[in-house]
Amino acid sequence: MAAWFSGVLQLTELDDFIAPSQECIKPVKVDKKPGKAAAKIKIEADGSYFQVDQDGEAQKLEKAKITLNDCLACSGCITSAESVLISQQSHGELCKVLALNKAAAASEQKLVVVSVSPQSRASLAARCRMGLLETAEKLTTFLKSVHYVFDTTFSRNFSLLESQREFVRRFHKQAEDKKALPMLASACPGWICYAEKTHGSFIIPYISTTKSPQQVMGSLVKGYFAEQQHLPPDRIYHVTVMPCYDKKLEASRPDFFNQEYQTRDVDCVITTGEVLKLLEQEGVSLPDVDPAPLDTLLGSAAAEELSSHRGGGSGGYLEHIYRHAAQELFGIHVDSIQYKPLKNKDFQEVTLERDGVVLLQFAQAYGFRNIQNLVQKLKRGKCPYHYVEVMACPSG
């Protein structure tokens, strides 16, 4: 199962997961007392841990309280947290929720919304040998046991636009704020998990504060759309279809939990592969499904069309910010972007020059090896880039 997650989150081949509802038997860290004598740890028959000092005095140690959010970055739990995630955020959980929702009284039923990423739609289209629009329409029909099916390209546009504005703000502040640049992309949850838990306060100021497309969609669905439907956020069950298992980690972050209504912006994340499992489970072939009109978050949008933009893959952030910054900061229109591979194909850079002077220097850093090299450059103060698109997986 570990192969489903990004390399940054797979440090070993262990299979020793700790469920969020369980307590870890590892004692919490105890402050060392002065003195050279080392205390011994004694384990009782009931599994209790005691610290025994030199005088024979025993002190019971507390058990560590570990939640899913806590254990994602330690080398033991990080490799196996997928077992927890698969049980809590999976196609099986979605089916369970739909069944319970159908059986509930009308006043207690939730509005179920599914948001499909363009990457997942493209993967399904390639697998089923269909066009993107045809795939989207047939997927809408298949998922019609839910109430609405949206396309997350809409929220990706929001994320890209805000990232552009944030970069320009940071560029203007670089003289007074030494950590304004380089701005590091924040859309990859695997990278963010590694950065926060491994490098903490050093790296966080460099990371973009813009939400990922998934979480922007979560805010829109539980905020704007909920208001349009005259429902509180907790009366909507929001599911996203994503290409990456790490998105399950992102949705479970406490940052995206509404304390007032006790609900998450994204309640459940299923992957493209899990959609295929749903199809197999129902005995359905997607090419044989009748198409249905697409749902839209805004009534003014054309329901029959899919919104799209340049650079919609991993390179979307770098390309959009680069073009916008070149025009906004230097009045230079960039038509095509030339990438320069460095030590390997997963580390490339783009440079904007005028009269031999470097104006902007951007880079792509994909995979754990390149992320480590990037962080070391930052720590040595030798990172020449203004923006780096960071993704945990090799090839982005």
TrEMBL record:
It comes from the Eukaryota. It comes from Mystacornis crossleyi. Keywords: 4Fe-4S, Iron, Iron-sulfur, Metal-binding. One of its GO terms (molecular function) is metal ion binding. InterPro entries: Cytosolic_Fe-S_CAF (IPR050340), Fe_hydrogenase (IPR009016), Fe_hydrogenase_lsu_C (IPR004108). The keyword Zinc-finger does not apply. This is Nuclear prelamin A recognition factor-like protein. Gene3D superfamilies: 3.40.50.1780, Fe-only Hydrogenase (Larger Subunit), Chain L, domain 3 (3.40.950.10). Belongs to the NARF family. Residues 111-396 form the Iron hydrogenase large subunit C-terminal domain.
